[in-house]
Design a protein that fits this description.
Blueprint lengths: L1 E5 L2 E4 L4 E8 L7 E7 L6 E7 L5 E3 L7 E6 L4 E6 L8 E8 L8 H4 L6 E4 L3 E6 L1
Parallel strand pairs: 2-11
Antiparallel strand pairs: 1-3, 3-8, 4-5, 4-9, 5-6, 7-8, 9-10, 9-11
Amino acid sequence: VQLQASGGGLVHAGDSLRLSCAASGITFSGYTIGWFRQDSGKEREFVGALNWNRGNTAVADSVKDRFTISRDNSDDTVNLQIYKLKPEDTAVYYCAASSGSFADWDFRTRSRKINEYVYWGQGTLVTVSS
């Protein structure tokens, strides 16, 4: 199983960016797909998640006004749309797949936990210049 995050790059503050997560070896049906980010010297933090089957989404409170997460059934990808980028958004962005599809009642809690995810991609670097 391999996950591939793509779409990162060097952008200016205020720009928008769309990151995509694709998988080989699995289809996303039955999984929760999470996005996390990690800046140098910092812990990896939750950004957003999507339950592929149910369509539930969760986005971190710190970015919910600028980040959206969605799925594209045509090419089996989970996308993270980022608006109004800030220098503090600079990080490596990772996508990950959980061990299963979380139930509705605990989706918000479990989707934020790194240890709920078993497959990880290599990440895509987003650098935001001021």
